[in-house]
Amino acid sequence: MGHELTKNDIKKMEDEIEYRIAVVRKQALEDVKEARAHGDLSENFEYKAAKRFKNQNDSRIRYLQRMIKNATVISDESAEDEAGVNNTIGLLYEDDNTTEEIKLVTTVRGDSLEGYISIESPLGKAVLGHKAGDRVLVEVNPQISYWVQITSIVNTDDTDDQIQSY
User: Fold this and answer.
1) Which of 41, 112, 157, 163 is deepest in the core (most CB within 10 A)?
2) Which tens digits make up the pLDDT trace of 10-23?
């Protein structure tokens, strides 16, 4: 099941793949060769480290390629007044009367510590497409749900957001 990604997400991933293949992989191969030249591989710490780094880089490349291949490309255009991808949403949690600002993002950028909430999470799904002033029921699971009120919606973009490392 692919994730929903914007064109911009995919572009950033492609850029990273390109860089990892052109620059990082070449350097990693050099390091492996150089370490190999140092003789006894069984004790050669540099060789093992170089090899491990090369494998990590390769698996990151495969991971990104897989993400792109399985992605559903979605638009990050939303109606001016509706909660959509990359918008910053003001929320009022009715159960304890607290407020929070969250930014709706695609899965690869989700980071709840930063207030980035994935559109595939319960909260993200619930507010998507709603307008400021709407009350929305967030269903975490069949037993747990809570009400939020959307207090504001600001169109922001994702230029500075980083793709999650893993």
Assistant:
1) 163
2) 999 999 999 999 99
